[in-house]
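fyi for ur records
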Amino acid sequence: MKIPFRYRGLLYLTLLLVVTPLFVWRLALRETAATSRQYHREKSELAALQQMESAPEKSREAAIDLTEQIESGLLLQSLVPLTEKHRVAIENYTPYVSERQGKLTIRTAEVVLSGGYIPLLRVVDAMEATQAGCRLISLSFHTVADRRTRTKELKAVLLIRQITQNN
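which gave:
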């Protein structure tokens, strides 16, 4: 195919200004830029970890909440307004001791909530934001068919864990 002499310069200029930078980016610079982004991300994570390691022991001890919330029912009391606000029902609340070692006790609560998907997510999000001493360790969704009404109901099973000190 012969390109007319008149448009040849325009074609070469387009190749030089548009296509060549695209090929250079694709073949040479893309991986370099990705490696640079990964390096800066890992550098910031390392700085954050070093800052946490250099924190004094008092702040680490403060991470263990001394007020027991699972066994005493404070966790359940704090969940009730959230569930009423988002129209979610608390089906079951089961607290138990997972492990004891020395002065520390790991307590776990299994909470079963039922309702719509979005309201359940909103309750879980609000619970994570408000409960400082408790951590959500597992969340699973499943549907249960009600034989009487022949409808399906969405349930969320939350496992919440807290570390407390023994007296």
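Strands lie at 89-101, 104-114, 135-146, 151-165. thats all i got for now
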